Amino acid sequence: MINVIKTALDGVLIIEPAVHGDHRGYFMETYSRADFEAAGITNDFVQDNESMTMKKGTIRGIHFQLDPMAQAKTVRVVSGALRDIAVDLRKGSPTYKKWIAVELSAQNKRMLYVPRGFGHGFETLSDNVVFCYKVDNPYSRENDRSVCWHDESIGVEWLTKEPILSDKDRNAPLLKDSDCNFIFRG
After folding, report:
1. Residue of 20, 26, 63, 120 with catalytic role
2. Is 63 a catalytic residue?
3. Which of 30, 147, 169, 184 could be bridged to 92 by S-S, CB 3.0 to 4.6 A?
4. What is the pairing mode between strands 13-17 and 111-114?
5. pLDDT > 90 fraction of the chain, expressed in percent and rounded
6. Residue in 23, 31, 113, 133 annotated catalytic
7. Is 133 among the residues known to form the active site?
8. Is 12 within 8 Å of 115 (Cβ atoms)?
9. pLDDT band, residue 15 (cuts 50/70/90)
């Protein structure tokens, strides 16, 4: 059984799995189709991904894939801690360019569900962060996009002031200069 917490962005959900622990350690279900469907998450997840970020103070994002290859994601941390960011990139949405931040860690075992139409990023709060996520569309190089992590029109308040960045993130365009094609459908 999972506990689902709504956020300020409609459709973005914090998921708290039931964790069963004793003197040996713990057990938890990280995905149950029945539990997710009961929470309104009906995506057909097709791919699992894992990344490792070595240094605290690294920012990855804000990433997304263009329609029709947009991805819904369920993300979680296996080792370490990070601050996960979801940004509404759907033109016409009442929360367009609004964002939320949620701490995900190996300790709190929280997950975040990010629907299609949202950008996603994170900043590491510890070294050696292992990050896992399920997606409902496979990776598509030709549809892979980013917008500038410090785009003032979005205004994410990052904790990290001098981040470690990839070339992709360092050179990402502002949202107004991107070809982001997400439209709010009500």
Report:
1. 63
2. yes
3. 184
4. antiparallel
5. 99
6. 133
7. yes
8. yes
9. very high
